[in-house]
Write a structure and sequence with these properties.
This protein has 418 residues and is of the alpha/beta class. It folds into two domains: 206 residues, P-loop containing nucleotide triphosphate hydrolases (Rossmann fold), CATH 3.40.50; 168 residues, Ribosomal Protein S5, domain 2 (2-Layer Sandwich). The protein has ten helices and 18 strands. The strands form four sheets. Strands 3-2-4-5-1-6-7-8-9 form a nine-stranded mixed β-sheet. Strands 10-11-13-12 form a four-stranded mixed β-sheet. Strand 15 and strand 16 form a beta hairpin. Helix 4 packs parallel to helix 5. The termini are far apart.
């Protein structure tokens, strides 16, 4: 007779109703609910991305590339939270001695912050049920194992089971749980897509090309907005918040050919970013289109509009295009910036110094107004920008910048006299 596969019991499973037992349903009016204030860590960039702090009893995932700083950020946030909340930190990847060295280097030594390097998920769940910490961190979920399970740690089955048990623990015991996770080579969270549906929030920590800047991005947040960004800079003593990111981004920008400054809204704040274009006559049968940080089709479309109405042969040129700073952006309000960056490179003439370019371009070559122009104009004035290029019929409040209006792409040629 074939022997049955071994089974295991988890703390969360003990609360399951017996088979066939009826469920008591309640009207909304009879459900008692006591509003809970968010848990503020004091790390402002973290708190803002999470929607104003951590919602109690939530299950959150922080993911990102290896070595990007996930463990460093989690340890710093835990240390800040431990000033007010009892916090457990389970390190499943590093030994307790390695964690101690990192904690001392980062000055994360709050007495309310307790450590363990145990990776046994059943033991972790039992400890949490007994001790009832306010916050629990598992770094990382892929290294946890379930005793008696035939699946390997990090496998789809164990990730699904581990996340489910942690979700039940958070909801039933009122414990806030943060787990770190790995990403695949495609840059998405490792494991079945079901994981993202089970948790309350998914946050990515990403690197940036030139500097030691780290970007914290919310891609799912049941208790706040998504696409909010937080900025940090890696130093020897950990991640430091970058509260004035635009000053940081504008440090190395110079007025060169092929460069155009634009502004986009990321989360709740406008960012000032540089678009860089390089056009060169192609020696190939099929000219190259190498684009990063923006949808390639958008650049190709703007190039086609310029060729159609300005009769410049961009179709015979290789086009290399990027967004500085390693950002990935989208939206039609950057159309005019794309066009002027391409024209600046094509004619080898820079745009006027300290100029912000904002406008949409239609397929007929008309330059259209955009939304939230006043917010962009105020941010530009804050950094002493002198010029603002916008659509001819754009409505806006009086700006401290000199405003130049364009109605059609024909008019852009006035910036590049022969």
């Amino acid at each position: 007779m074939e022997q049955a596969a071994p089974t295991h019991t988890t703390p969360g499973a003990r609360k399951s109703s017996s088979a066939g037992a009826p469920i008591i349903m309640q009207p909304c009016s009879s459900i008692t609910h006591k509003p809970q204030p968010r848990m503020l860590s004091g790390v402002q960039e973290w708190d803002r991305v999470l929607g104003g702090g951590i919602m109690p009893s939530s299950l959150l995932v922080l993911t990102g590339d290896p070595g990007i700083g996930k463990s460093t950020l989690l340890l710093q946030v835990c240390n800040a939270l431990a000033k007010q909340y009892r916090t457990f930190y389970f390190s499943t990847e590093e030994s307790i001695h390695q964690v101690k060295q990192r904690a001392e280097r980062l000055s994360c030594t709050q007495d309310n912050l307790l450590f363990s390097d145990n990776a046994d998920l059943i033991a972790i769940l039992a400890t949490a049920e007994q001790e009832k910490p306010d916050v629990m961190v598992i770094d990382s979920i892929q290294n946890c194992y379930i005793p008696g399970s035939q699946s390997l740690p990090g496998s789809v089955g164990q990730l699904r089971e581990s996340t489910f048990q942690l979700m039940r623990l958070a909801k039933e015991q009122g414990i806030t749980i943060i787990i770190s996770g790995h990403i695949t080579k495609e840059g998405v969270i490792a494991g079945p897509k079901m994981l993202e549906h089970m948790v309350d929030g998914v946050f990515y920590l990403q690197g940036e090309d030139r500097f030691q800047t780290r970007i914290l991005r919310a891609v799912k947040n049941r208790f706040g907005t998504i696409n909010e960004l937080g900025f940090f800079e890696m130093h020897e003593n950990g991640l430091q918040e970058v509260t004035n990111i635009n000053a940081h981004l504008l440090e190395d920008i110079s007025n060169q050919t092929g460069s155009a400054l634009i502004s986009v809204i990321e989360g709740s704040r406008p960012l000032l970013l540089e678009l860089q274009a390089l056009t060169i006559e192609s020696k190939l049968g099929f000219p190259q289109r190498v684009v990063s940080g923006i949808d390639q089709k958008q650049v190709v479309l703007i190039a086609a509009i310029l060729e159609k109405y300005l009769r410049i042969k961009l179709s015979t040129h290789d086009i290399f295009f990027k967004v500085s700073g390693g950002f990935k952006i989208k939206g039609s309000n950057i159309d005019l910036g794309i066009a002027l960056a391409l024209l600046s490179s094509y004619f080898q003439k820079p745009l006027p110094d300290q100029t912000i370019v904002l406008g949409e371009i239609s397929l007929t070559g008309q330059i259209k107004p955009i939304n939230q122009i006043s917010l962009f104009a105020r941010e530009a004035a804050k950094f002493n920008m002198k010029n603002l290029f916008i659509a001819k019929n754009q409505k806006m409040e009086k700006s401290l910048c000199k405003t130049t209006r364009f109605g059609h792409v024909y008019e852009l040629l006035t910036l590049f006299p022969s």
